[in-house]
Amino acid sequence: MKFQGKNFSFELGKRTYIMGILNVTPDSFFDGGMYNSPNLAVEHARQMLHDGADIIDIGAQSTRPGHSLLSDDEELKILKKYLPLIANETGAVISVDTFFPKVAEYALNNGASVINDVSGTFNKDMARIVRDYDCGWVVMHTGGGTADRIPTYINGVTADVADFFDTMLKKCDDFGIKRENVMLDMGIGFGKTYEDNLELIKNISVFKRDGVALLTSLSAKRVIGTATGAEGYDRVFGTIAADTVAIAGGTDMIRVHNVKESVLAAKMADILLRG
Prior knowledge:
The chain is of the alpha/beta class. It has 9 helices and 10 strands. The chain has helices at residues 38-51, 72-90, 101-108, 124-133, 157-175, 194-202, 222-228, 235-249, 259-273; strands at residues 2-5, 8-11, 17-23, 55-59, 94-97, 114-117, 136-140, 182-185, 213-217, 253-256. It has an 8-stranded parallel β-barrel with strand order 3-4-5-6-7-8-9-10, surrounded by 6 helices. Strand 7, helix 5 and strand 8 (182-185) form a beta-alpha-beta unit. Helix 1 (38-51) packs across helix 2 (72-90), helix 7 packs across helix 8 (235-249) and helix 8 packs parallel to helix 9 (259-273). The longest helix is centred in the first third of the chain and has 19 residues, at 72-90. The protein is globular, with a radius of gyration of 17 Å. The two termini are 18 Å apart.
């Protein structure tokens, strides 16, 4: 069982993989403005790879609470300054965080191998691109909500996420997208209350699907701050604790800001849980 595409392959079940976050927008909630110059972005990508990141996830649009939505042309303008340079300078496996098909196609032609799609929908234009480029596709649950708008889950959030995953996988099957190209994401912080987020983290094992990769993306998010009272870097400790619970539940990859700390913690968790 693997998560793979044209230019990458990760065998599932052997260890926890690390997706390092590289935000190149000035208003991201955790590190906005820290890497919004090409040279700084390349330097940070290199450091994350040195620290053990398996994928570099580039985001040119903030999805933080209260964010302003960029158009596809605006997002593309930012990405063009960074993606080709980072790809050429690092040789990393790169994912691009976008829900715009236009941006996704550009990314896949300029060094990206994975599209991290936070739309929470099955967009046929995006699906066609994923199929035709044989790339990775992160499919995330939102329940139709955002960081600021929380829907009502009639049967509970766990059941809603599980049903969404099954529906999306069926649509992928029908569209000719291989399951090995898909990675599922619960969407912590997207259309979820604090209690919803905690419930999902506790129930990771419910979302495992045979032969399909599972991503947990909770690094430094509001749920961590609310639970611990921590801000800034200090949220890394709560993040590691929650990610360890996710690893115990069977997640295949964690998406993190602090790569070195998360790699070391995941190695220990893997020895105890997968060894």
